[in-house]
Design goal:
Belongs to the glucosamine/galactosamine-6-phosphate isomerase family. NagB subfamily. The chain is an alpha/beta fold. The protein has a domain of 176 residues: Rossmann fold, CATH 3.40.50.1360. It contains eight helices and ten strands. The longest helix has 17 residues. Bound molecules: 2-amino-2-deoxy-6-O-phosphono-alpha-D-glucopyranose.
Length: 255
């Protein structure tokens, strides 16, 4: 695992965009996208590079991590909608090749299984972008999620509903259920890139990177993966015991 500490959110966005830029220009075709506020600086930078530096996503396809269950179709906070407005509408990826779990299906349980099968068939994801919840969730895998879990319908904690209420007209509007890629599904990607910014993420980042491997911190599953990059700003790095070593290792990368 490589841990990169940057000064602020914008610098984190550039560093993560570098990872996607390099991957796409060297032939990566299957991208894993995340929603929430953490990836926005990445998308802003990728859109800029698309417009100004010829970075093309025309050959790419993209898969979302998760989706709410039960929102009205086209709801501005559905992740299918958010990813379009924040990223994919502004680059040249084929909209038909941007897919997410179907939170509107009559049978959402079957829809979750179908999505997992699609990821197995069309994957693996080359580069998967991840945020992290303050309780250590990735995707919508809340504490207690099996480290080997697959895409499924699951229930949000009240804390996550409160955290996400800022995107809605109050907590009552936030769905209780979601479809999320499981921790095992996410771990099938070739390269996992987690971005976290702000002091409110410091504890979750430290637990994920340096804490025990445990379902109580779902993001600790990253410790099992062979290729992980964690990009954090100074505030989110504040609880990392080995921060000085991560800086030293970055300055002294083997060539
Ligand atoms: C959300 C999403 C996650 C996201 C996380 C953090 O609920 N399902 O994919 O990483 O919570 O969100 P934010 O980046 O807005 O802090």
């Amino acid at each position: 695992m490589e841990v990169i500490i940057e000064s602020d959110d914008a610098a984190c966005g550039v560093t993560v965009a570098d990872v996607f830029d390099r991957a796409v220009r060297s032939g990566a075709r299957v991208l894993g996208l995340a929603t929430g506020s953490s990836p926005l600086s990445v998308y802003r930078e990728l859109i800029r590079r698309h417009r100004e530096e010829g970075l093309s996503f025309a050959a790419a396809q993209a898969f979302l991590l998760d989706e709410y269950v039960g929102l009205p179709k086209g709801h501005p906070q559905s992740y299918a909608h958010v990813i379009r407005t924040e990223f994919t509408d502004h680059v040249d990826v084929d909209p038909a090749r941007v897919q997410g779990p179907d939170g509107w299906a009559d049978d959402v349980f079957a829809a979750a299984d179908r999505y997992d099968a699609m990821l197995r068939d069309e994957g693996p994801v080359d580069v998967q972008l991840l945020g992290i919840g303050v309780n250590g969730h990735i995707g919508f895998n809340e504490p207690g999620s099996s480290l080997g879990s697959r895409t499924r319908v699951t229930t949000l904690t009240e804390q996550t509903r409160r955290d996400n209420a800022r995107f809605f007209d109050g907590i009552d509007e936030v769905p209780r259920h979601v479809i999320t890629q499981g921790l095992g599904t996410i771990s099938s990607a070739r390269h996992l890139v987690l971005i976290a910014t702000g002091g409110h993420k410091a504890e979750a980042v430290a637990a994920a990177v340096e804490g025990p491997l445990t379902a109580s911190c779902p993001a600790s599953v990253l410790q099992l993966h062979p290729h992980v990059t964690v990009v954090v700003d100074e505030a989110a790095a504040a609880r990392l015991t080995n921060a000085d070593f991560y800086r030293y290792a970055r300055e002294n990368r083997p060539r």
